[in-house]
Design brief:
Purple Acid Phosphatase, chain A, domain 2
Amino acid sequence: MKIGVLGDSHRNKKAIDMTIKKLKSEDVDLILHTGDNFRDSIYINEAYNLDIIAVKGNCDFENVEEDLVFDIKGKKIFLTHGHKYLVKYGVKELFEKAKYLNCDIVVFGHSHIPHLEKVEDIYILNPGSVSLPRGGSQKSFAIIEILDSKINIEHMLLD
C-alpha cells in the first residue's frame, strides 16, 4: 500500500497538480492531506478521482474533523494538522498523543517544514508544504509505503 502525503497547499492548484502528477506516477493508493486548505482535498478527489483522507487546519473553516485515527494494512495512523499540539515548538505533545492512541504513524502539517523521525517505534511525519515551504526547506510531500509489517517513508521534492 502506497500513501501520498501532502498538506499546507493553501489553494495553490498549480503546486497541487504537480504533486498529484508525481504521486500518480508512484502509483499511490490513497492520499492524506494535513489541512490548510481542506478545500484542496475536495479538489484532489473531484479532479483526480483519488481516495483522500483529510483534516481541517487552522486556516480552514469547514465543519470537519481536526484529528483522525484510522487503520491501514494493520498500521494505526493519527492524522492532524498539528496546531493544537504546538508543533512549531517541537513534536513532544504530538508524540505523547500518538503514544496514548497507540499509533504507529503520526502525520501532521502546520509548520511547513519537512520532518521525519522515529521515536519509540512511532514514525512522526510532516510532509512539508507543496506551496509555501518555510525554514529554508523546499516544496515537498511524502510517500508512506506499508508492506506487510514494514513501514517505509520518503520525502520527495516538488520541482
